[in-house]
Structure formats: structure tokens, C-alpha cells
Amino acid sequence: IIVVGRGDGTPIPNMQMAAPGEVVLRTGRPVLVAPEGQDACHPTNILVAWKDGGEAQRAIADAIPFMKRAKQVTVAAVREHKDDLVSGVDEALGFLLRHGIAGQSKVIEGKKGAGEDLLDLARSTKVDLIVAGAYGHSRWREWAFGGVTRELLLRSPVPCLFSH
After folding, report:
1. What is the pTM of this model?
2. What is the pLDDT of residues 111-120, one digit of tens each?
3. What's the order of all strands across the beta sheet hosting 45-50?
4. Whole-angstrom Cα distance, residue 11 to residue 127?
């Protein structure tokens, strides 16, 4: 696992700094991104930002050591349009159960956008770690139009464990 600080965007003279999103994309390792001022991570209430795909599947597998110690794990998916199907949540819970982790599921009816909806859930349930697959869409699409990865990288009040 690689641990990086999100920082506040202030450049430090004579220092090269890697952006957390670049670290996630280029290292092939799970990356724990800590918000400014965070000096420890002992999560007891974990939110898995679920979207059925390889990135989220890898993230949930990479987070097993954290989830084994947690008191509560919630696998949450956002239904962005009322006719959208949400898939893979039951399979994700089954995967966790096979690892001795009893989780719960939550389907969020999207209102503000998937990233903001997930952050609202994280705040309201006092989550202390968010687990997410990173850059399920191309990075350029997320840069131009936004996306969950970008929203979590910029605005999460708690550490995020990303896998790509």
C-alpha cells in the first residue's frame, strides 16, 4: 500500500510533488490518500463506493485487511437515473462474507451526482474510510466532466483507499 497526503495544493519551493491521482494511475498499487491534517488511519466504519467493474473489485480486495478490523462495512452504489440497474452489490457482499466480513448494502438514489451523493452518505454515517475503484472512466473524461474519483480526491473529509 502507498500512503500519500492530499495536501492543500500549495506548492513547496524546490520540491517535486506527485498528484495523488497520478500515483493511483501509475503505481499499480492500492493508494491511501489522506486529507490535510490526517495523521493516522484506524477505520471502524468503512464505506465501499461500489460500481460493478474491475476497479471496484480490485479496491474491495485490496481493502480486506482494513475491513477485517472494522465494526461496520457498507457497500454503496449510486443509481444515477431511476431506470438504471445496480449490479454486483450482492456479489461484493458475498465476497466479503467469504473473508469473514459481514457487510450491508445501500443503494443511493442519485440527486447531486455520484461523488457528492457518496460524500453525503459518508458524512451522515460518520464513515472514517472510503474504499473506491479509481478512474473507471478515462482520466481525460473525468477531468473534463468530473467523476467520482475526482470528487473523492478533491473533497473527501476522510481517507480514501483507491485501486486502479
Report:
1. 0.85
2. 888 889 999 9
3. 2-5, 31-34, 160-163, 129-133, 45-50, 72-79, 104-109
4. 30
